Fold each of these.
Amino acid sequence: MSSRRLMLWFYHLSWKKLLGWSGLALAVAIVPLALTAANSPTRTRSEAALITKPQPISTEFVAPKGAPEIYLVDHFFGKTGDAVLIHGANLGGFSERTSLSLSGQTIPQDNLVSWTSDYIEFKLPAEARSGRISVNILGQTATWPGTFWVTDANTAAELKLEKVNEKQARLLAKNINAANGLLVWLLIFQGEDKSIEIVPDLKPQIKTLPLGRVYELNLNITSTGEWITLATITKKDGQAVGIARAEVIGANLPIKVHPLYVSF
């Protein structure tokens, strides 16, 4: 069976059908995944994303009602093999007339995990380079405004949200020199109230996405090997806040966030 036919067959399986497999088949399928998860820090499933999605494996093509849009690339960084989730609209579905690219290079079919009308999940290829993520749906293109960073063991620039208590966290940076500015998106993606308090007042630009509210910060910082505090964020009951984008203006500097400190 060709890789394309195999992918289409797998996508047409529902989870109810998967759960109907024999215990032996499930054991064979689950054990290698469990071993991989135990021995590797790689994000093997999109559950690591800020905004997780169920896993409806489908290739049903939903005719777009307008131009494609990308709201968020989740996470905005990753290493080879990591799962990346793209949230958007009018993404159609997997077909011969749709494609996904990173830094101008098409994501191979074997790296595509799921593709629906409102999200795409893929595994980061070994040859991937940092850059913009774009989709082409029936000849119409959409590009996420941020940069996706391909990271590895040598990536030194880092951000994190370190919890002070259940409602407060400090935004910290390490090994980031940004004389021209460090752009950071803080996304409020849970809770009825989408407002947060940031101290000091960094005069953020506020954007509203279908996924939540973005506080766009622009900071001028110089950080060395020690963590420095950029701001303290206070949220309300029921809210969840995460780092959704980060880049040094005018510089090609990959930035990472430890998964345990990407949201609170």
Amino acid sequence: MALPLFLSSIILAASLQAPAPGAGGGELGGITAADLQRRVDNLAHDSMMGRDTPSPGLERAAAYVVAEFRRLGLRPADAAGGYVQRFGLSRWTVDSAASRVELSAGSTRAIARVGLDVRFVGGGIAGEAITGDALLLAGPITAEMAGSRRLEGRIVLLALDYTRPLPSDLGDRVDEIAARARAVVLLSNRDSVAFARRLETAAEPKLTPDFLDEGSAPVIEVHQRVLGDVLEAADINPERLRSGERAEITATSGLRVSIRLAPRYLERAQAPNVVGVLQGSDPVLRREYLAFSAHSDHIGITPGRIDSINNGADDNASGLAGLLELAEAFSEPGARPRRSLLFLVPSGEEKGLWGSAYFTEHPTVPLEDIVANLNMDLIGRNWPDSVIAVGLEQSTLASTLQQVVADHPELRMAPIRDRWPEERIFYRSDHYNFARKGVPILFFTSGTHPDYHQPTDAPDRIDAEKATRLVRLLFYLGTEVANDPERPRWFPESYRQIVERH
């Protein structure tokens, strides 16, 4: 019964405050701290209930964005004529009774019971059996190993040492492996109590986007206590795999793996992306697009607190308010650049970049026609005169940005490189899904703070004046990129590391 909810959301959104058409006069006169703060107040209002994916509050936020796009004259980007692109979600758990993991070497066979000896970690789960010979990864899991084409279509087995701290980037490496493999099996040496706790967590219902099942490899953790005989028959020593100093990929001597994971579905839902387009002024270049993006969702409600609503003012009402300010400025007479502008508001970012992943797999315009993505996430806090611009070292967008900064000293906004590379923020917002598809990106963020993912991330803590100067910088940058007859270009090494590895 989602349709009545969505219609009621549209009615509510129409009642929210919106800047008067043409407020401020002139394309940059419309980008004001008062307007940006008003939009943050709307998007981070308690009535949005933290904008979790999925939730009625997220639908209200989407309806508010649709109403703004319509008011500003953006055209729907969907071929069906709507602003909203929806993707399916499922809440489910693994049906242990219908699932089975079996390993064999010659006549030696071991059956690992799902829910007792096997923990589902993540990835797709289609219900059909996956069978094949195992490919072993030994030693440290390096980026080169995780990106190897030898993993494609294989069942990959690696032995992790859970008795010591795991590398901080291990999750990303396993995700890279899973993106190439048919399945990933993690041999576990956890103690029995720790493994039992993990099994309890794995048994809890999961919410995942349906499109992840389209070819995504399952990742499972199997406790080696039930595999002793079959590993010995295949001449595999898990401790030797863990302790190796050299990263190696080797075929096993006859270890065969069969995995069947059956889902039990509990609930179906949908989540909204909102997409609008301003057509460019050039009859040829208007077929290409500069994409601005800022996610709409947050983390919802934290039960058990007096103030339980995580309003997400900075994360990411600030970025979305900035995107709407840009849409308004570019919609002013005479402000449209030669290329078309695409404004993407994905949801599910907090869950795992779901909305942007769906958009880049199912784009509403040809993906090859998107020349660049400028992404905003958490732009309203921290230093008043600087912003992190992730991607400066990756493409010619950097030189364009440097020129814009030099041309507009009045903005007092200095883009700086990523200050926390160990946090791997390049992989943690929606620009990443554009980058891995070959679209040059810049990601603008002021970084995290003590209120990050807390109910205290409230509208009254936003530095709207600072965010407004950044949005003006993006207006000038977007104008340059969208008017330049040359498309932005990747630097060769960045292209190899980011695009070709995917």
Amino acid sequence: MMTLSALQFFVFGALAIGCLQGAHARKWRNTGGTIILEEAWTTPDLVNQLGNTSAALGGTNAELKANLLDIHNQRLRFMDENNVDYMVLSCASPCIQGISDPAQAEDMAVTVNNILADSISNNTMRFGAFAALSMHNATNAALELKRTVQELGFLGGLVNDYQQSGPDNATLLYYDQTEYDVFWQMVSDLDVPIYFHPRGNIPQIKSPSIGHAPWLAGPAQEYAATLSNHILGLCTNGVFDRFPKAKIIVGHLGERIPSDLFRIDEQLKRQLPLGMPMKLNVTSYWQTNIWETTSGNFATDLLQFHIETIGLDRIMYSVDYPFVAIDEGEAWVQTLPNVLSKRQLETLTRGVAIQVLGLDR
């Protein structure tokens, strides 16, 4: 495993921006089609992590796994058929966050990132990538993010909620603690986003929380309930106050947080006298540090509410392929001219993503 002193780390981190500024502008297919960025892929070594994950209605688990392993066949065909210019790939949940041994997790992260970089190297006009990261050690996570961005051309990183750790897999690592400040410093220096994606809970959490109603496991309830706690932890523990340039993305229309901002802000006021590190309110960070995508949540009324609440410039279109079909997303996009202007639709389906991902630099 790589380790650096704090001084060495910050010296290397300070060089990150300069290296990026010297890079050539990214080339990608820019024909006016959509950009989607919560789109899963995996390796043969990790595909069985998915277990009995439910496929989309009408599909089978075997088809789901085949779609996860594929890049240049049916995935690209679905993109061509549904006006997708560019897709950002990331390792399907839980990926590295499901590996409790630190050495194994770090080795697997490097392997996964190298495989993904090699797999898309012949078609970077259509595909980009978010790095898989082992979050056992903040400095090592920062260095792997730096490597993938500067050497492999990745667009940022994706973490599948908390990092499980410990001999019984029950030690949970959250990135809102100060020991992760070196990671957030690197994120800020590189000026790339970190996508926060949900994961299935470890049994020690799943059994008591939804054992009474196992149908709530996964995207219906479990994912949003767990990941929203992590996102709110980043806010309340002061990560965005310490690192005002840090950027994160949250899928599924923000894991319900923007729908409840009034109550969240009002109730958290009571925590300020008790020593809560957060200096502003959660709504403020959705204006400066947090973006959301529509992945797998094609609710037009909810989209309109979120536009009013956090602004269209904080929202990006995504699909959640292959758990959601690309043509399902495109069918929804085709209905949006009923409620959005042409300019607003372009902002949602590509404009914000170009800015956040740095596709224009």
